[in-house]
Amino acid sequence: MRKIIALFGLIVLLGSYQVHNVFKQPTPFVDKAVVIPANSSLRSIAKLLEKEGVLTKDWPILVLAKIWGVSNKVKSGEFLFRTPSSPQKALNTLLNGIPILQKVTIPEGSTMKEMAPWFEAQNIINAQDLLTAFQNPELLQKYGINGSSFEGFLFPSTYLFPKNEKASKIIQIMTDELKKNLQPEDRIKAKALGWNDYQWITFASVIEKETGRPDEYGLVSSVFHNRLKKGMMLQSDPTVIYGIPNYDGNIRKVDLQTDTPWNTYTRKGLPIGPISNPGAAAIHAAVNPDTTEYLYFVGNREGQHIFTKTYEEHLKAVREYQLTPSQKAALDAADAKAAAEKPTKKSETKPAAKPIVKVKKPAEPKAEKLPPSITTIEKSAEPTVEKPAEVAPIKKEPTPESPETGETLPLN
Q: What pTM, to 2 d.p., does this model score?
């Protein structure tokens, strides 16, 4: 009986408030956007709406929500309210209103560390909270991802999210978008290669980071497929970069030699997991490579790549497209000096200190010690170009898999 009396009293109180508003002087209406923080109580929301001028008093909406039985059902996000607004209209907006959506664009090849601040910039979610969720073991298990993060599975696209969105909702929407772009026929091809979805996306992520040109995806894919078939290392620079904390834009020899789970200069096969979030074109190219015999490629400083079949061709491409004029001049000078001194080496012999008697065959003359660029060439089965110490683009660790020289220069 007491509850009925109390409820009746609330209704009368609310009714008197409404009658009072009817006879008030009309006030011009203005639309105002108000952000309702996540997990806010209705009482704190009512105070916020009063402060923002949406409500003239905070208590009527509390009474109305109690009568309707919806005190715990209001939404969070950014909503557009008419000011001043009646308690009914304000409460209806909190229950059924469509939040104002914020646009965020995730480019192909972005990493989760890169994208998290973009969400924060739009007031969608705190960057660190999102990064933590991207590495949440329970969420990874829920989505069947056997890696340490959602890297690779956050599909790049343009999204609309409300402010103060939950991380779990963001992950759900982005992973769902990836599923839509995994074509059934391509999944069959991936399985034929012995890959599961995780390996497929990992391979696609390397392609995505190697080139920004869709017309090169198939070519880059063919290079890596050819190298895998020959048992060669992928030797992809982006896989090295991904494992470098606070990468400053320069790859050094020590970086190539430093083993990380992603470094394809120190480990054969695919990196341990994706190094970026690939788009649909790279995902498709990963299991649909062009038919080529290419094993190498190098950038031409104009956003394109030069693809080659042999190591010698690759060296020429590196010299042509990667070296600066001063580096080329130094290399040309070394070659000219080598050419001038080579005949001297064949004609000169070191006179013996004393005749050798107990030898059936005469001792061969000891060759004069030549500059490093010449001795390096003579040790090879076929000529190669000596690397000057200052040439940054070709300062990569030699590997035993170069079939011609036993050395390697940058794959890309």
A: 0.73
